[in-house]
Prior knowledge:
Elements: H1 2-20, H2 22-25, H3 30-56, H4 81-103, H5 110-140, H6 151-174, H7 185-223
Helix pairs in contact: 1-3, 1-7, 3-4, 4-5, 5-6, 6-7
Amino acid sequence: MSWCLAALFGVGAVCFAIGSLPLFFDHVAPGIVATTFLVGSIFFTTAAYLQFHETLTAPGEVLPESDHPRRRPLRGAPGRIDWWATAVQLVGTVLFNVSTFAATQVDLGVVQERRLIWGPDLAGSACFLIAGWLAYSEVNRGIVPRPDRSVGWRIAALNLVGSVAFGAAAIAARYLRTTDEPANIALVNLGTFVGAICFLVGAVLLPVESAKDDAGHDEELRSGGPGSTAP
Length: 231
């Protein structure tokens, strides 16, 4: 599953990174650029759904042998903090599907663009930011950064930074406009590119995290540790 998620998130991130490059953005037909972002958003949504489904079947602890239960963001709330993170992320990817699909249409008026492109884009970025913060707070266990040298912490930190960058791009598109353009294209492309690269690196690290977790579990089994079934 980690390899599948890495591939899906990675392809989506590459599409967003390529679509935001000036060399591509300025020399390729707008329809192709918009379709590139749409394809990337579909890969993101597929990966987000699989990740959410995986969370539904996950054990109640961070690891089966862990003494630290997963935290709930709200007392009595459905699921755990990882459930909320993946659910909100999935909503964000669907909103990106709406905005990127609308961007492929060439006959939208100003009001329609605000409702179908800029609105969902801003809301989707907000969802990504919330999901990134929830995932990071679970791994980091607090507001102040506490790097524990784990791959999981690096992935959560990269995804949070990528979400901030996506949010900055959405704000630049919606509010920080120049006088002769409908949006601040330079800031939009920069935020989108930085966010995409962060998500790409985080995706690449997913199989690394799984491999290290498996190696640690195997070592405990050999040594008769907490995860061992040895007598």
